[in-house]
Design a protein that fits this description.
By secondary structure, this protein is mainly α. 60% of the residues lie in helices and 8% in strands.
């Protein structure tokens, strides 16, 4: 049986509630560039294109319906996740550069041994710093869950159809 990829429920809701296009900010653009590609085996995660699609939709700020609240919270949570990626890479490269500078009196072999470990550790420190600066550490688990919902899923017909 062939697998058909269809938009998820939250993507359909976003498309229904969108009133136009939203311009991405500079930090959002760079954050999307810094995200790793996703291999979709089960379509359980959002990739760069899905995040860009969520961020580029404009929603009515005056709409007080629960659906509008859900899509706005999802967009804000995705925005925080994307912007915090900049802090991850910036901290990793800064820590690597400072290590290179502090090892300036040693030979290059000793620098090359330390740099990958410092860079890898810097990504974890940068994630924490990015979460703090964007306010992602203080967001509700519900909002973070909304941001993690996939934009596409495999079509699975219900048992009573067909």
């Amino acid at each position: 049986m062939a697998a058909i990829v269809v938009p998820s429920d939250i993507t359909l809701l976003e498309s229904k509630m969108a009133i136009g296009k939203r311009r991405l900010g500079i930090f959002e653009k760079f954050g999307l560039m810094g995200m790793a590609p996703v291999f979709h085996l089960h379509y359980s995660k959002m990739d760069k294109g899905d995040r860009r699609a969520v961020l580029s939709k404009r929603f009515d700020e005056e709409d007080a319906s629960p659906q509008a609240d859900i899509v706005r919270r999802r967009q804000e949570s995705v925005r925080k996740e994307v912007v915090s990626t900049n802090f991850m890479w910036g901290t990793a490269w800064t820590m690597t550069g400072l290590t290179w500078w502090s090892f300036r009196r040693y030979n290059y072999q000793s620098r090359l041994v330390a740099l990958p470990f410092i860079f890898y550790g810097g990504t974890f420190v940068g994630r924490v710093i990015g979460d703090i600066f964007t306010g992602r550490n203080a967001e509700f688990a519900r909002d973070r869950f909304l941001a993690s919902l996939p934009a596409k899923i495999y079509y699975a017909p219900s048992s009573h159809e067909g």
